[in-house]
Structures are given as C-alpha cells and as structure tokens.
Amino acid sequence: MRAVVVHGAGDLRVEERPDPQPGPGEVLLALEWGGICGSDLAYWRHGASGTAQLEHPLVLGHEVAGTVAALGPDVTGVEVGRAVTVHPATLVGEGDLPARIAGRTNLWPQVRYFGSAAFDPHTDGGFSQFRTVRSDQLRFLPEGVDTLRGALAEPLAVAMHAVGRAGSLAGRDVLVNGAGPIGSLVVAAAVHAGAASVTAADVSPAALRVAAAMGARSVLDLSAGAVLPADVELVFEASGAAAALGGVLRATARGGTLVQVGNLPGGAVQAVLGDLVTREITWIGSYRFVEEIDDALVALAEGLDVMPVVSHRFAMADAAEAFAVMGDRSSGSSKVVLRLDGKPVEDAS
Predict the structure, then answer these.
(1) CATH no. for residue 218?
(2) On the CB side of 67, how many CA atoms lie within 13 Å of its CA?
C-alpha cells in the first residue's frame, strides 16, 4: 500500500509499505479521505509537534474516513463495506481519573493518537490506503454523510468540544478570533449551538470568507485596520498566537469567558495578560474532545454544512504539494484534504 510518511523536517514522502492485516478485535479500513491538520504541518515543517519529537518515520493523519475492508477474529456488529470514520485516541495504562475530571478521557495522563510521535515507537496515522484499527474506534457514518464529510468529523468534534466548554450558547453573542480551519468550524459549531450572533476576526481575507460561509454574521479583517469589538461576553481564541492574547482579553467583557482552543506555543512567549485579572475573566482551556465526534456525526446528518472549510483537494501522490499549499496562508487555503484511495480528485480550489 501507499502511505504519506514524514522522515524529518521538510522530508515528506509517499512510499510503499506492507498491507496490514487485522488482528483479534481489529478491522481493516480502506481509507478514502484525510484532512491535513496543524500537527501534521508541524511534523513536516519542524520534525516535531509541541513536545513530541520525531525519532522515526511516521505515517501522518488523524482526520480520516473510509470503508471497512476486512474483519479480524472476534469482531462482531461490523459489516464489510460500511462507511466509517475513526476516533483516533487510545488510552494508555489503567486506572481512574480523579473525580474532578471523571469521564474526561481527553485528559487521560497518556494517550496514543493517530499520527503522533508522542511515544516511541510512534503511532502511525491514517494517511495510507489501508490501516487496521480496533473495532471500538469505529464510528459509523450516518446515511447522507459521505466519507469526505466523515473525515471532517474529527476537527468538527474539536470545535464542538470547545463550544461545549462554554456552557449554553443559546442567545449569546460570540467572538471567534482566528478563522483558520478550527476557528471556522468553531463558528459553525457556535451557530449550530444556538448563538445569537457570531463575529469572526482574522488577518486573512480568505479565511474570513470561509468563516462567513460557515455562519459568521460579521467578519473583521484585522490586516485592514479593523479592531476587535469591546465587551463580548463569550470569546473563542482559535489563532493560537500569543501576541493576540492581549487584544483578545481586552475584547472579553468584564466577568466574561474566554475559551482557548488554538494551541499556544509550548515554550516561553511574550503576552499581555493583565486584563485576565482586572476584568475577572474566566479563561478556559479546550483540548481535543471526548466523544463529541458522535455529536459531530449527528450534526452532519442533520444538515450542518461544513464543506465551505474545504478549500483544496489533492491526490495522495501530490501530498507534498498539498502540505505546501496548506502551510502557505497566501494560497488562500483552509482545510486541505487528501484523496487516499487513488480515485480521481475533483479540484475544489
């Protein structure tokens, strides 16, 4: 089979690997679509993502969908040919979470994740023609949700988890700072959750067009001199830019809530944080998701349209170009997806 493998910073290859065979409790998936995430870009650019350092070649990709190709021993309740996506997390070790975070398995001390170098040996992802997974990781795609949309369920789950961290959005005005793929999906999730209005802010006009298509009532082009509004009760920070924190905190109303969904740098940074104290802002972190991938599939089945976030489609053979396009904000890219099964790619750029 073919797979998209990163060997080091700037070294991305499409190479042949042996076809996997499902073991007990596993299924073999024939993957069709995969979405490139910021962590995939980080491995390609830097040979690392956060504190996870690449030590060996790694198959990238954790936003994937396809069909069941074969069943391993002892697998029941799964049919060959069924369209599925995958919950990419595997909890490592046994035990119980403290009562304060009971059920929040995204905060488990150690988690193996598709396409991650956090452990050695690394955990290969799903940018390949085939991959074996545990049957309990499967999430069946509802009728009317194709595998391209199914590959968007994982990042939509991240957005829905962030929205859920804020409590009820019904009737609330929302600001989303950062309109990249996750920020634009937060816009869609906030609208779906009943927000009265959503304003999106970014330095990229192309990103703002996506946010508007995803349901933002108004957009602010910060590169053209627009400024963040004042006294917003609920703000989602999705840019992950430490330099933006001062302005975002100032935009948050006194006693308001700021949900941090954009990944902040792991090292020391300069940031203006004084308003966090003087405005008594509640600053909430949001990390991956628990089971919101199920909620994402329900929302997609009910008609939530997240396809405007897909800006480019590439064949697996053109993965290097796909990564370059997604990594270049001047390209106008948002979510870039790979066709993993070798079928023709319909250009969406």
Answers:
(1) 3.40.50.720
(2) 7
CA–CA distance, 349 with 347 (Å, rounded to integer): 6
The DSSP letter of residue 291 is S
Are residues 125 and 12 part of one domain? yes
Per DSSP, 19 falls in state P
- Asked, for residue 346, whether it belongs to a domain, the answer is no
Contact between residue 337 and residue 314 where contact means Cβ atoms under 8 Å apart? yes
Q: Establish whether the linkage from the previous residue to 24 is cis, with ω within 30° of 0.
A: no
Confidence of residue 124 (pLDDT cuts 50, 70, 90): very high
Q: Give dist(CA 322, CA 327) in Å, integer.
A: 9
Give dist(CA 83, CA 138) in Å, integer. 10
Backbone angles phi, psi at 123, to 5 degrees: -105, 105
- 133 shares its domain with 184: no
pTM confidence score: 0.97
My answer on whether 227 and 116 are in the same domain is: no
Query: How many domains does the chain divide into?
Result: 2
CA atoms of 173 and 187, how far apart (whole Å): 12
Q: CA-CA distance, 297 to 156, in Å (whole number)?
A: 9
The answer to whether residues 80 and 71 touch, using CB atoms and an 8 Å cutoff, is yes
DSSP 137: G
Q: Are 42 and 55 in contact (CB under 8 A)?
A: no
Per-residue pLDDT of 297-326, as tens digits, reads 999 999 999 999 999 999 999 999 999 999
The three-state secondary structure class of 242 is helix
In a domain, 45, yes or no: yes
- Distance separating the N- and C-terminal Cα atoms of the chain: 27
Query: What is Dmax (Cα atoms) for the chain?
Result: 61
